[in-house]
## 1
Amino acid sequence: MELIDLKAEIRKSSGKIAARALRKSNSLPAVVYGGKNEPLSLSLNTYEFSEIIRKNGSSGIFINLRVNGDVKPLRTVILKEVQMDTFKINYLHADFHEIDMDDKVSIMVPVETAGESPGVKGGGLLQVIRRELELWCRPADVPESIVVDVSSLNVGDSVHVEDITVSDEIEIPHEVNFTVITVIPPTTSKSDTDEEIEDDIEGGIEDRAGGA
């Protein structure tokens, strides 16, 4: 697990007008909550924040938040939510949750596949039903991804959450044994479908002619 450095300033004003003013000055309103401290309103450099998202995505990022002028100048946080405008172009707000590195956290981790499925070689289609899985573990134990071997999957086979093996330090919380990955049969081609329709039509005409 990588800790990413991000600088922040304490935000003394709040409200929509103050937030708009921050964004116009290329700053991003943010808040950090959790831990043993009161929620703290912050402003970030929008460019620095967007570069972090561009390189690391927005899911499950652990950050060393360096807050200028704070009584606690270094906070270890996890990015919990990013709000964007209607067109998904501009960042509007960021929420961080302060964490203790010794405590377990809930985090979403991407699912990746490894190997070649014989079912796919035979024309089937590999479907990743869950592209992310929730993990419950300490920050230091968070993997970059959950890798699932699909080299034994034939058409009709599936991998369920209880089939996935993780280390003893990690838990995948779930109430039902849901499907994570499956291999479905090849889709019917357009030409095959057309032929079936034509056969049905011709069969119907013959039935009507025979009954006339």
Note: The longest strand covers residues 74-84.
## 2
Amino acid sequence: MIFLDTSAIYAWTDARDTNHEAAVKRLQEILNRGEQLVTHNYVLLETITLIQARLGLSAAVKLVKDSWQFEIDWVDKHIHDLSTAALGKSAKRGVSLVDQVSFLIMKRRNLTMAFAFDLHFKAEGFRLFEV
């Protein structure tokens, strides 16, 4: 199982993104291996908002319709509160609440690999999926 981040979803969606080719290649390899992708609803919301702002409503709606293909963890109050506390303790300005939720979910699921282009995952001790 591999964690799926906003940075990867956006990169494979936007052909103009600098990581687009790598994202498409990595996604294909993940599918070829039969790996399951898992994310959480905060990542989906963040990505849908980003795609709608940059690529338009139809691209955002397509992601909403396609998201059934991922396993989705739904953030509850407990996870939100733990992640908010971690954000408050973090001295890393560039690490968002969504990132904190991602790290917590990965740790709870014992996941070590993220399909991401966000180097905060690596700094947090996770591996980035590469082909």
Note: The beta strands are 2-4, 37-40, 71-73, 113-115, 127-128.
